[in-house]
Amino acid sequence: MTIQVLAWQALSGLSVGMVLFLIAAGLSIIFGALNVLNLAHGSIYMVGAFICYSLTSTFAHLAGVFWWTLILAPIATALLGGLIEIVLLRRIYAQEMLYQYILTFGLILILGELCKLVWGVGYNTVAVPWPLTGSVSIMALPFPAYNLFLIGCGIAVFVGLWAFMRYTGLGQIIRAVTHNREMVNALGINVPRVYTGVFMLGCWLAGLAGTLMPPMSVVALGADMEVIIGCFVIVVIGGLGSLPGAFIGSVILGLLTAFGIFVAPRLAVAFGFILMIIILLVRPWGLMGKPE
Amino acid sequence: MRSNGRKILCMVSGALLVFALLTTFAYADKEAILVGHVHSMSGAMSMYGISCATGGEIAIEEINAAGGVLGRPLKQITRDDMLSPEVGLREAKDLVINKKVHFLTGTISSAVGQAISQYAKEAKVLFIINISQSSRTTEELGHRYVFRIDTNAVPYFGYGPALALAEKWADKKVISLGFDYEMGHNGLRMFKEKYFELVPDAKIIDALWPPLGTTDFTPYITKMLVSGADCFFLSCVYGGGELAFTKQAWSFGLYDKMHAVQPCAGDVETWSKVKKGEPYPKGALATCRYPFWAIEDPRNKKFAEEHHKRVGFWPSYGGMNQYFIIYALKDAIEKAGTVETEKIIDVLKGMELNTFVGKVRIRECDNQAMMPTWYGIMDFTPDLPFPHITEVKALVGESAYHSCAQIKELRGK
Predict the structure, then answer these.
(1) Which of A109, B54, B144, B167 is the most buried (most CB within 10 A)?
(2) How far is CA A208 from the centre of its chain?
(3) Is residue B67 less than 8 Å (CB to CB) from chain A?
(4) Residues in A 102-161 with any Cβ partner in B closer than 8 A
(5) Residues B76 and B35: beta-carbon distance below 8 Å
(6) pTM value?
(7) Each residue's pLDDT tens digit, B15-74
(8) Domains of chain B, with CATH numbers?
């Protein structure tokens, strides 16, 4: 195993991890602020992927259609998220956790069936957009430019979100809600509106991941279930509600799987779960989370 | 007095309504011959479920329009197994116990298929498989009540690809990638069985097993690229997973680096939307269960077009199989003169089906229909808008399957 091959495997692990990060970050932020574990988060991602397919295939004749889609599709999923929060979720904040699970699980079924009705059961693809079609030579081995772009997107979104949370007034309010919502309410801040905003932000991220994924994968039913388990592993490793936790968790899960495949392919999938179990036993609040 | 009269009127008309409903149901139950169909109707594999249900419905409408079977109409009741053996088994039991279906059909997942098969054995209900291909279901685990009208893993994943590879390149170092479940392992086992016989010094240098449903194979592909293999073999990576794998392998240049054996690529339902210039399994050896564009029989053309008209996509091999299953049941019921399970089974064993892919016999020793398997090389031709197998060859007849002697030995173990 040369250093070259190692670097290559690391990059391919990161490109898997970064897409999952976008979804897990939304899941984590929503949990942090709203205290809701949105089981249907993968479904929002799948809706984003289908919207990406619809827009890119309907307007295939327009130049740079993918880049327009990258702006529009996440906005669409954010609006869908806003609708879900206002019409459904808002009613159950005061109830116990079980109601959340039932509601968000119900949403998985509803959104899955809606996708089936609207987009059918076929397998759809989206072409890799210009100018990312070629590959870049990394230590003499060709690596697809699009996968490098995915890694770049993940890092850019992490830095952007982190700066937003840290340095803007709105970000500070969201963090404050995460820490103590009663106090924020007492300070005259409209907490329900913050909730809607945070839920929309989380869904925007899921939609972004849903738009970024199709050029290297496939748009089809079942995408929701495929990503959500990985995302749960990530947020447990990193700490539910923590943005840096989601980032570190994604990097760890991506690398662990990639090198797992290299060293012991038969067990590759298990490594992530084993780490999750260890973390749950030793540090249940996750690497970057805070104990209650 | 007046209000009392109204009350009585309500009661009587209510009772009449109930009786009317009851008799309709009783009449329907007595009349229709019910075929239970358990398949994956939601999620990643729902294309196959919908295709199978549609294939069955087309056959049933044709038969009912021509007067039904023994003067009774056929009816298919479809249920969703959600790819879970537990759910599939529950639905199968509900169909048999509460809906009183006469026969069970269906399933794509071999895990679900084996769960229902076990139940069929205990409950003595006829179960005919239209997709799930693990050869174990009808070989090691086979019994009187389970039939399969579809190819199985032996010709499709094993002998077909092995013959093609031995003929074409006879590569020595093979790396495999398969979905980590019953069928993935069964497929690789069948491929090894034949390929090592044909190319004795060949080796599987590594076997990779992503979980069923994976769509991001990047780290597996980078590993395959540096493995030093001459050729890769995909064991039961199909549907969306296969499409995603192909795109990723294409962008990493895997098809230029080594030979490809990609069994499922020959079946068109995954590829019908892929256009020239887009990633496809370039030059891969592939098997195919239903090359509908190449079959001359007019019944085939009519079926494929009817299927496309109803659901908007070309039929999968499963849709074709369910169509054959309904006709096989019709023929068996007419021959036996009854819907009684034991008598139907006696007729089905050894029966020859007159299908649009030729005359297909149901073998007695494993209740397996000797369906043909085609294989060839993936390419584009001017005739069709999607990639498909070219230089097509067919594996026909019993020699493509395990022999009855081999099965006896497998069962003896």
Answers:
(1) B54
(2) 8
(3) no
(4) 112-113, 116, 120-125, 127-128, 135, 141-144, 146-147
(5) yes
(6) 0.83
(7) 555 555 544 444 444 589 999 999 999 887 888 999 999 999 999 999 999 999 999 999
(8) 32-151+296-371 (3.40.50.2300), 154-288+373-400 (3.40.50.2300)
